[in-house]
Amino acid sequence: MLEALTGAVELGLLYALMALGVYITFRILDFPDLTVDGSYTTGGAVAAIMITHGYSPIIATLCAFVCGLAAGACTGLLHAKGKINGLLAGILMMIALYSINLRLMGRPNISLLRTDTLFSAISDNRAAFIPVLIAVVLAAKLLLDAFLHTDLGLALRATGDNARMIRSLGANTDTAKILGVSLSNGLVALSGALIAQEGGFADIASGVGTIVLGLASVIVGEAIFGFRTVFQATLAVVLGSVAYRLIYALALRIDLLDASDLKIMTALIVIAALVIPTVRRSMRQKALARRRTEELLGAAVRQGGRT
Hints:
2 strands; mainly alpha
């Protein structure tokens, strides 16, 4: 049981980088970006190809991040400059990336089991694995927080809140959108590269459903931990990614679901995270309305008694 929960935490931390990328487009830019399913695979494919050809795992991981940036920039350009609907631009880029990834890999699957990766040095010391992952994820989270508080980051956040207003102030919303989508997919590709190295393989189908996993992490994190400030929101996304993996691991351990039920489990978690806060909000509003009605009736009764 402990081993399963430890594995869930490790996987949640690895996926947290992808969830942070989805948070940028989904929450900050309000942009339905489906490029994620392709750029995640791109990160794993680039890292696997370079490592198997003798390149340093660090260089391979950085190149995977850059390729993710390029994929996101293409989607942003299609939307901002090509005036293509954001959802359609993401779908088109996702389709294109499937062929690009397959051409890069040369085959559907690449093994990394007999090569040195970023995790080779600590592969025999699992006790150090989670602290290392926490340090990496926190560094990425704090860097993202710092960026979002710069002038460029504030313009990015303002573009998502009210693009028309920010344009009236002279800011270039097209540049902000391209930058945001690019950064998002860079983080997603980075997550794909790390997971490929940790798992020991890169697969052409590994990115299928990635956007749903990212949304699940964002929504679960916000529902449980809240999102009043940027720091709190990004922390909630990281914790949401871990919480989602823990929930799924616990469901598997108590024999509620089989491993093949991952998709329906994801759907149910997202539905619960969306519905429960809405129900709570509705109940609070009804309770508040009931108290106000009782107060008004009480005031009316007292006023009638005095007259």
